[in-house]
Amino acid sequence: MTEKSSLVLVGQVGGGFGVKGEVKVTAFTADPLALRAYGPLLRADGSPGLTLSSARPTKEGIVGRAAEIQTKEQADALRGLKLYVPRDRFPAPDEDEFYLADLIGVEARDPEGQVLGTVRAVQNFGADDMLEITPAAGGQTWYLPFTKVCVPDLHLSDGWLLAVRPTEVGEREPD
Fold first, then answer.
1. Which of 2, 33, 104, 167 is least crowded, fewest Cβ atoms below 10 Å from its Cβ?
2. Biggest distance spanned by C-alpha atoms of the chain
3. pTM for this structure?
4. Phi then psi for 99, rounded to 5 degrees?
5. DSSP 168
């Protein structure tokens, strides 16, 4: 079993495709076919989820066969299953690049150096990526837009990022 914090979400089962036991998977990767190359895809708890034996690209991801699925009903029963890959299966990022998953656990500090909290998750509700911050003083999590204005400096090797909370509420001009 793999430690949950080292897992990266790469896809989600959309259900069966056709009548021969193929499964649709929405890919959250730049190359949908990479899902097959990552080896067994895991559930959130680190247990085996799907082992893709074949795959072809679609508009939303892939359609393929998995060792665990023989019928359309079995594929449909897995609809909504989130699929993960251990972080160490990904190649090392280039210099000045990182994976969003690498932000989880990083301290968010204000411009004066005070720790505001820790990045709990990176969310995307349809617009920009948002950093979900667990406050250092406790309480409800809050969101920080993951933009150059709100996060002007990343010091990932030192375990922190500079967080500038937006001061105005309202619409903003597109980047």
1. 167
2. 60
3. 0.70
4. -95, 145
5. -
Beta partners for 48?
42
User: Between the CA atoms of 124, 97, 159 and 100, what dihedral angle is there, to the nearest 10 degrees?
Assistant: 20
State how far the Cα of 88 lies from the Cα of 99, in Å rounded to an integer. 12
Task: Please tell me the distance from the alpha carbon of residue 52 to that of residue 63, in angstroms, as a whole number.
Answer: 10
**Whole-angstrom distance, CA of residue 169 vs CA of residue 175:** 17
Helices (H), the chain: 34-37, 72-77
The distance from CA 2 to its chain's CA centroid, rounded to whole angstroms, is 16
Tens digit of each residue's pLDDT (9 = 90 or more) over 28-54? 888 999 999 888 999 999 999 999 999
Give the pLDDT confidence of 70-114 residue by residue, as tens digits: 999 999 999 999 999 998 888 888 887 888 888 999 999 999 999
> What Cα–Cα distance (Å) separates residue 87 from each residue in 48, 122, 161, 165?
15, 15, 21, 29
Distance, CA of 42 to CA of 10 (rounded, Å): 10
CA torsion sign for 128, 150, 165, 169 is: negative
Calpha distance 69→52 (Å, rounded)? 10
Asked if residues 70 and 94 have their Cβ atoms less than 8 Å apart, the reply is no
Cα-Cα-Cα-Cα dihedral sign, residues 21, 24, 25, 29: positive
Residue 4 pLDDT class (50, 70, 90 cuts): very low
